[in-house]
Amino acid sequence: MVYVKKWLITSHALVLKLSNKVIQVNYQDGSELLMSTKHKKVSYLNAKGERVTYLISTALLSDNKELIKRLNYARQVLEYSLKRDGGERASLGTAR
Known about the structure:
Helix content is 24%, strand content 39%. By secondary structure, the protein is of the alpha+beta class. The protein has a single domain (4-85), classed as POLO box domain (Arylsulfatase, C-terminal domain). It has a seven-stranded antiparallel beta sheet with strand order 6-5-4-3-2-1-7. The two termini are 15 Å apart.
């Protein structure tokens, strides 16, 4: 069974770290980003419901500007959450 290990809420998205080593980012506009280190893939669902999947190694090289924008935002949020001890812009929780 897959479960949420950690979550991060920002002003633009909900970031979930799942027990199956997937990072899921749900954006306010309904778009969604799934990053799997196990399968080395990124899946992006845009606000219109259209899904595309890329290898992690090639995702930033794609012509999909929205995907690249979402990947960069996810990277910034994840880096921020790793560096911070506390903060005003995001709240972090751990599932037990």
